[in-house]
Amino acid sequence: MMKILINGAEHSMRGGATAGDAAGMVKPEADVIILNGFMTDRSALLNDGDTVYLIKKGEVPTDEEMRRLMTSRHTPLIAERLRQCRMAVCGLGGLGSNIALNLARMGVGSLLLIDYDVVEPSNLNRQQYFTDQLGMKKTEASLANLKRVNPYLDYDVRDMYVDRNNIPGLFDGCDVIIEAFDKAENKAMLISYASKIYGETHIIGASGVAGLGCFTEFRVIKAGRNVHIVGDFTSEAQPGRGLMATRVAVVAGIQSNLAVRLVLGGLAD
Amino acid sequence: MNIVLSGETVNLERELTISELIAKYDMKKETVVVELNGELPDKDQYDNITTKEGDRIELIRFVGGG
Predict the structure, then answer these.
(1) Which of A127, A162, A176, B18 has its CA 20 to 30 A from that of A137?
(2) Mean of the per-residue pLDDT values for chain A?
(3) ipTM of the assembly?
């Protein structure tokens, strides 16, 4: 008998079995068959240890299939720890829309997504929205996009403007709070008040992301006991130095990777 | 009085409030988070807390864009 991994689950098959036999066992309606990373057809012979993915075009994987997929990509311990996490993304602009997608792709189980704004044409140069989403609330547009990545995560969207008065209670149960606001005052306000109220929660902010400076200008500094800030601390968005997709995405990547590293601890290395 | 500001020893002629220290370095209180001896004091206290000999202070500057 051969051991064949079909859509993430192990199956025993007799010698000489084909990809078509695997499809017959697990997903007869499949119209795309991927054998060890390459597209093939039903007549392909299988060998012991092969990995087969059977896809029906247009069909959304089940919750269980999605979990198996994440577990096989991320390893069981990391996938399980991230599935138990709740992370807040404050602001769904250039940083936040990218961070939210990164965290959804990582399989962070619960995401609190906050913004008060709507998608406008000037956002499309760097934010993860699409022309057919112009005029939509960023919370609603983000939710739609994230559900296309992973429909089985818990998404908690809040159309609101964060100020010092509504921070208490807002982040209860969060393992990480990510500051992804646009205005400097709002950034400093959130970091300052959230770090006081949520002293046991990791807080990750950003400062200095505009322009096209080299990535080596970025630093991550630790402040207090639970705060990290990413950026070059000087590149302010201003006329002549705008916010650009390529550089903003780097900082969003650093913030999201740090969020994942902090909750995983030793599992990350 | 000597304090350590961003890792460098700085001599101050007199004790300053955190708000005064921020202004001295041409920054705005609203866009700075101050780390004082490893802690982040309440923003509301920046007018009341004064520098002490040997304080280790970081002025973390936030700029717009995100």
Answers:
(1) A176
(2) 97
(3) 0.95
